[in-house]
């Protein structure tokens, strides 16, 4: 009887061991993938960064203006334009937001449309430097076409050169006239603000 009782007790204990729930993750080889990544793991850090990626915070307006001023000054010099004029165009067009896209599809700082970008060979309209270079080049092209008349140049930049040339004057559109007034006003502000810096 005693051996049978002992055997029964051992068997019961063995069965209890088999059926009792035990921790699954007992070594690194059995840990789930996420548990293997420590907080300092480059892979986990990269994954979390992608999941929590947010749009870059936009700098205050004056800081954005100062940031792009050197690019504007350089491009304006190359095309013999007043840098204050270019700054004013950017201010009115995009408020110095590099990723700005208008309802009509104009892109970047100088709000260059698809056809104009193609004409200028601009492949990266959202790149500030490329956008400024292309926009200044286009503005200079319009200024030559309209015999250095700044008002007509701005009208063409806003309404399109074909329309301005066909009418031989500033189109009688409220938007275009307001655009010209705003740009000229901002141009005077930038001339005062960057006076001296433009010569450096």
Automatic annotation (TrEMBL):
CDD domains for this protein: LT_Slt70-like
GO biological process, one term: peptidoglycan metabolic process
Organism domain of life: Bacteria
InterPro entries linked to this entry: Lysozyme-like_dom_sf (IPR023346), Transglyc_AS (IPR000189), Transglycosylase_SLT_dom_1 (IPR008258)
Coiled-coil portions: none
GO molecular function: peptidoglycan lytic transglycosylase activity
Pfam family for this entry, one: SLT
GO cellular component, one term: membrane
Residue ranges annotated for the Transglycosylase SLT domain, each copy included: 71-179
Record family assignment: Belongs to the transglycosylase Slt family.
Protein name as it appears in the record: Lytic transglycosylase
UniProt organism field: Dethiosulfatarculus sandiegensis
């Amino acid at each position: 009887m005693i051996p049978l009782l002992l055997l029964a007790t051992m068997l019961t204990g063995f069965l209890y061991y088999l059926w009792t729930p035990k921790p699954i993750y007992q070594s690194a080889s059995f840990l789930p993938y996420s548990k293997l990544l420590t907080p300092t793991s480059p892979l986990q850090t990269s994954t979390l960064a992608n999941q929590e990626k947010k749009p870059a915070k936009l700098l205050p307006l004056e800081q954005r203006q100062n940031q792009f001023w050197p690019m504007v000054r350089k491009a304006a010099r190359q095309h013999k334009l007043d840098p204050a004029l270019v700054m004013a165009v950017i201010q009115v067009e995009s408020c110095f937001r590099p990723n700005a896209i208008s309802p009509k599809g104009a892109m970047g700082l100088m709000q260059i449309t698809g056809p104009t970008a193609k004409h200028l060979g601009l492949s990266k309209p959202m790149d500030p430097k490329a956008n400024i270079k292309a926009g200044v080049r286009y503005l200079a092209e319009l200024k030559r076409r309209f015999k250095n008349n700044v008002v007509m140049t701005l009208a063409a930049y806003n309404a399109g050169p074909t329309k301005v040339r066909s009418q031989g004057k500033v189109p009688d559109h409220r938007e275009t006239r307001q655009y010209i007034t705003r740009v000229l006003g901002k141009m005077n502000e930038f001339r005062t603000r960057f006076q001296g810096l433009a010569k450096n």
